Amino acid sequence: MTELQKYYFGFIFVIFMFMKTEPQLKFSSTVFTIPLIFVFAIWFVYWLEIKFGWNFNKFGVYPRNFSGLKGVFCSPFIHSDTNHLFNNSVPLFVLSACLFYFYKEISVKVLIYGGMITGLLTWLIARESYHIGASGIVYLLFSFVLFSGIIRKNYRLVAVSFITIFLYGSMVWYVLPIKEGMSWEGHLSGLMTGFIFALLYRKRGIVKEKFEFSKTEFDKMFDEDGNYIPPEIIEENELKEINYKYIYKENDEE
């Protein structure tokens, strides 16, 4: 196991640690089942290509061409080789697991709508070539998890954001055209979409914890500006009426 793989599995361990400390979070099977299904699907599609000698590259995003729009839905499942596939599989699983655990309420919307918008942005701004791979989704998840924690100011989510930077911060360089044959436009589209969704959903799910101090009897002796409020003294001006009852004793004298 490489050092990088240890970090990945360490990150999963951190997720379990958070499960025990955050009362607003509840673990469900979808945290791991949906990411596993997604990863299995992209490996299965690649296996079909190898097994039957098919080439699905033409189902990728082809910019500013009507037929190229099918890639908005198909391209995340298509990869050029095993190296490309493996590089996307691990961060896809880890980041999507984070999404479904920490942001369960909006996870499906972020994944589906965010993935569609990422694909459409790629279709609009990318160079004329077939753009394939789940890296756009990976950048979408990376950006959303990173910025959501910071924007919400919840210390647990901020911690997750910093761990995300630690693990995947180097990915930011790949939103620039620094490597030939790489769809940096898809990366940039995912990064921008994730940031936009983090802003849109900043008030959904876990937000900054608000602490309210309960007032004691001593606190009630001061107003909002800290001025002392003397207690009210009620004087009893009228004496209470006292009723007497006399019992006469008869003398038994003969």
Automatic annotation (TrEMBL):
Pfam family, one: Rhomboid
Keywords of this entry: Hydrolase, Membrane, Protease, Transmembrane, Transmembrane helix
InterPro entries found in the cross-reference section: Peptidase_S54_rhomboid_dom (IPR022764), Rhomboid-like_sf (IPR035952)
A GO CC term attached to the entry: membrane
Chain ranges of the Peptidase S54 rhomboid domain: 72-203
Highest taxon in the source lineage: Bacteria
Residues that span the membrane, as ranges: 30-48, 85-103, 110-126, 132-150, 157-176, 182-201
GO MF terms held by the record: serine-type endopeptidase activity
Gene Ontology biological process: proteolysis
Cell location: Membrane
Topology with respect to the bilayer: Multi-pass membrane protein
Keyword flag Transmembrane helix: yes
Protein known as: Membrane associated rhomboid family serine protease
Organism: Tenacibaculum lutimaris
UniProt lineage: Bacteria, Pseudomonadati, Bacteroidota, Flavobacteriia, Flavobacteriales
